[in-house]
Amino acid sequence: MARIAVIGAGTGAMAAAARLAVAGHRVTVYERTETFGGGVRRLERDGFGFDTGPGLLRLPAVYRDLFVKTGKEPLESCVRLTQVDPASRHLFPDGTAVALPNASRAGVVEALDSALGAGAGERWSDLINRARDVWDATRRPLLEEPLWQDWQVLGRDPYPAVRRRGLFGRGKRPDTLATVARRELRDPRLVALLESHALAHGFDPVSAPPSATVLPYIEQTFGCWYAEGGMRALAEALYERCRARGVEFVFGAGVTGIPEKDGRAAGVELADGSVAEADQVVAGVDPSLLAELLDGSAGSPWRGRALWQEGDKRPDPAARARVPGRLTVCLALRGARPDGVAHRTVIHSADRGEELGWLFDPEPTLQESLCEFPTVTVLRPDDRSLVPDAEHEAVTLSVTVPPHGPVDWRDDTTVRRSADRVVAIAEAAIPGLRERVLWREVRTPADTAAQTGAEGGSVPGPVLAGAGGQQLRPANTTRIPGLHLVGGWSHPGGGLAHAGMSGALVAGLIVEGADWRGSQ
Prior knowledge:
Layout: E1 3-7, H1 11-22, E2 26-31, E3 42-45, E4 48-51, H2 61-70, H3 75-78, E5 81-83, E6 88-91, E7 97-100, H4 105-116, H5 120-144, H6 177-185, H7 188-200, H8 214-222, E8 225-227, H9 232-244, E9 248-251, E10 255-257, E11 260-261, E12 264-265, E13 267-270, E14 275-277, E15 280-283, H10 290-296, E16 325-334, E17 344-347, H11 352-360, E18 376-379, E19 392-401, H12 412-426, H13 433-436, E20 437-443, H14 445-452, E21 483-485, H15 496-512
Parallel strand pairs: 1-2, 1-15, 2-9, 6-17, 15-21
Antiparallel strand pairs: 3-4, 5-8, 6-7, 10-13, 11-12, 13-14, 16-19, 16-20, 17-18, 18-19
Helix pairs in contact: 1-9, 1-15, 2-15, 4-5, 5-8, 6-7
C-alpha cells in the first residue's frame, strides 16, 4: 500500500483518488479552498440554486464506469441523470429558430430542414458522418490511453477530405474548423451552429483544427445529460464515493512545495510549514503553476528542472495560447418556468467576426466590458430543487469571455455593464426577462481564478488532434519520478467527462506502472 498525496479536489483529482483508494492505496487530498469540486460549484441564495460551472454532462459513461469500478452503488443510484430534450434551441440573428432533439440523428436532420430549408439537414449530417471518422481514429489515443511518447503523430488531423464529383476524387483537406464550415455547410446559420460548439469549449474556429467537428458529434451521438440538483450534485456524489472508499480530505491546506527524497517526489509541503510525506504525488493543478511548487521547498533539487524527459518535447504548458474564461449571470426570477421551454438556448452572435477578434486577439488592449454581440447561452433547468417554490424560476446565463487580464474582471463597473448586456441579449430567449428579475449574482474569470487557481480564470477545453499538436495537453507522467498530473489542464483536457478520464489514466499509471497503455 502506497501513500498518495493529491493536490486539489477537482473532479479529475477526486476521480483518481477514488480509483487509487479502491486499489488499496492510502490517499489524502489537500485542497487550498474550503470545499471540493474545483470549478464545479453551486450558488445558493434565498432558496434558489445555480450551477456556476458546467451545466450539462456529456459522455456519462465515464462516470458510470468510475462508480462501477469503485463501489457497489452505480452512478444512477447516487445521482439522478436525465437527458434534456431538446438538447438545445438555437436563435440566429436573422430571427430563425431551431430546436435540436437529443441524441437523434434523424430528428436533427428533420429539424434543420424544417427551419433552414431543404438540404440543410443533409449537409449537417454529412459533416457529422465525417466527424465520426475523427472519433473512431482518435478515441483511444486521445481519451483512453496515456499520451504517447511519440505524441507528434497526433498532430496530424484525422478529418477526411470531402469526396468530390469528377476526375479528381477527394478534395483538399481543410486546415481549420472555419474552413470546414465554409466549404461544407455554406448556410451561415449552419456555420454559426458548428462554430458555436468550438466557442463553447474555448476554441477559436479560425485556428481550431477540423477535428473539432468531434465536439458536436459527441453531443449529438451520446446526448446531453442533466443531474437533478445541478451538476454540483455529481461532484458531491464523487466526493462521497471518495470518502466511502477511505480517501481523506484536508481543506484549507494550500500546497507550497513538493519535497524530494532519493530523486523522487516525496510528499507535499503545506502553507503552515508542515510536510506530509508520500510515495506518490498527484497534482490536480494547472501545470504552468507547478514550477512554483517544485521550486517552493527549501533547497529544492527541482529548481529550474524541466517537467518532461529530454528529447520528449511534449506540449509545454507555459507556451499555450490564451485560453478564455466564462462570465456567468445567475438570475432569480419571479414567475413560474413555462411548460415546454428548452433547457438550453444558444443566442448566436450578430457579428461573429467581432466576437472572435475580441476573444482571441493575440495582442489585446484592455477591454472595459463585453463586445457588442457575444454569443449567450441560456440555461433554464426544469428542477424544482433549485427554486423556493413553483412560482419562481432559476436561470443561468453564460458567455465565453477573455480571461482576467485583457478584461479587468475585478472592476465593478465592467462586471455590471457586461451583466446588463448579457441580460438584454437573453431577452431574445425569455421575453420580458428584465421585469422578472428579483436579483442577480455574477461570477467572472476572476472568481474562477480564486476557486481553481487557473491563471486568469481560464477554463480548459478537451484535447483535439491536428494543428501540429497545439491542442494537446501535458502528459499525466512527468520527468520527476513519483509526480503525476491530473485534471483539465493535463491529458486529455477539460470538461467533466475528460477530467474523469484523466483520473482513470493517472490511477492506471500508478497502479500498473509507467508502461501501462490504457484499459482494453
